[in-house]
Amino acid sequence: MGELSHEDPSPFGAKIDTVMRLLQDIRRKREQAILFVQFEDQLAQVQRALTHYDIDGIVVESAAAAGSQLREFQDSSHKATKRTVIVLDASSETAAGSNLQNANHVIFMSPLLRESQYGYESTMAQALGRVRRFGQSRPIHVYRVVAIDTIDVDILEHRERRVDALIEQDGTHIEAPPAAAKSNIRDEPRAERMRLVREDGKFSLRPKSWLAAGCVDDSTSEVTNGNGKGRVQGWEDFSSLVKFSSTFTEDDE
């Protein structure tokens, strides 16, 4: 996570440039990554960017070629010159199945847009399951690339449900406030909707109850409902002006 840089414009845009710089860092560490894109037409854009940045990657564009390309990516982990990244369409069947624990970095170029909470969570679990397999010996790093003040933030805040905070790359771990965590019937922390906030110049995605003095729900005076979105007062709003349809929000709590 982190704010996209505002350097000289490139033909690829700030988001793809950010991903390419991240891949360059992964290459320097001699590690490998899986990059998930949201839409099929982004595959060609990423392919051009990989060529421009001279990053050795594999872009999987069809189910027919997926098997051999996935094996090529796996096999390269044992070679002197590794393929740094394999690029998959998260909405395609090519994103399902194979064990890719040779990679320990997972990058989502955009928050996943799904019609239901179940669809979002199952797709995310399937994507992360590619590297969270028996035999994985290295720490796993997961990156969500988000453009602030866009629908990226709306989707992430609406669909991501967690009991802990997500921090900006190289950020500091954030502990839950003592009285903030909501609990389920077994008195365990309950996953809840998140909010993107900036504190001391760093972004983080935190459970909404953490942002108030105690456990907050949408009926308290500490929550506003601007544009149909429950927001905790006193924190900057990085979402867009989009208001989701009832189809998108029908499984809300």
TrEMBL record:
Q: Which Gene3D superfamilies match?
A: P-loop containing nucleotide triphosphate hydrolases
Question: Which UniProt key words apply to this protein?
Answer: ATP-binding, Helicase, Hydrolase, Nucleotide-binding
| Residue span, Helicase C-terminal domain | 18-185
A single Gene Ontology MF term assigned here is: helicase activity
Q: Could you tell me which CDD domains the record lists for this protein?
A: SF2_C_SNF
Q: Which InterPro entries match?
A: ATP-helicase/E3_Ub-Ligase, Helicase_C-like, P-loop_NTPase, SNF2/RAD54-like_C
Domain of life where this protein originates: Eukaryota
Question: What's the name of the protein?
Answer: Helicase, P-loop containing nucleoside triphosphate hydrolase
